[in-house]
Amino acid sequence: MKTETTDGATFETWTPDEVETAMKNGEIVLIDVRTPQEYMFEHIEGALLMPMAFFRADALPGQSEKRIVFHCGSGVRSEKVSRAAIATGVKTIAHMEGGFGAWKQAKKAYTGTDMGSGAPKSVPAG
User: Fold this and answer.
1) Number of separate domains in the chain
2) What's the pTM value of the predicted model, to 2 decimals?
3) Which domain covers residue 74, as residue numbers?
4) To 5 degrees, how large is the angle CA 108–CA 114–CA 115?
5) Residue 2 backbone zone (phi > 0: left; psi -120 to 50: alpha; other: beta)
6) Mean per-residue pLDDT for 86-103?
7) CATH number at residue 49
8) Element of type H or E holding 22
9) From CA 78, how far away is CA 52, in angstroms rounded?
10) Between the N and C ends of the chain, which has fewer C-beta atoms within 10 Å?
11) What own/partner pairs with CB < 8 Å and gap ≥ 24 does 33-42 have?
12) Per its UniProt record, what PROSITE patterns does this chain match (predicted)?
């Protein structure tokens, strides 16, 4: 994990491996900031959706029990949302480096779409 201090806040960049481990351990809330269409096509199981276009830092849950980690398709939008949260006074925030693309490249499990039926389908790790 990379950490930087900016405006008195801690901004962390997590790897897909770190996110997967923290999710399995129940330590984080993963928030997907992609569009609803992107999320419906494929997403990380258990990730919540808060599209960047509708992002409101004041609607974020507290982080007393679980940390918040944002992700998007490539890491660009999640970094922007993280920095926007810091600008509103959030003291610690994180995003996943490389986004969903890095997650898939690391061969992590996710929920995709069966192109024949349009139904959700589990894509196993590996």
Assistant:
1) 1
2) 0.94
3) 2-123
4) 120
5) beta
6) 96
7) 3.40.250.10
8) helix 16-24
9) 8
10) C
11) 33/70, 33/71, 33/72, 33/77, 33/78, 33/81, 34/72, 34/73, 34/77, 34/100, 38/73, 40/113, 41/112, 41/113, 42/100, 42/110, 42/111, 42/112, 42/113, 42/123
12) RHODANESE_3
Q: Which residue has the tokens 């928030």?
A: 31
Q: Distance between CA atoms of 125 and 65, rounded to whole angstroms?
A: 28
Q: Read off the pLDDT of residues 43-83 as tens digits, 9 standing for 90 and up.
A: 999 999 999 999 999 889 888 889 999 999 999 999 999 99
Structure tokens at 104: 């898939």
- Residue keyed to tokens 């996710």: 110
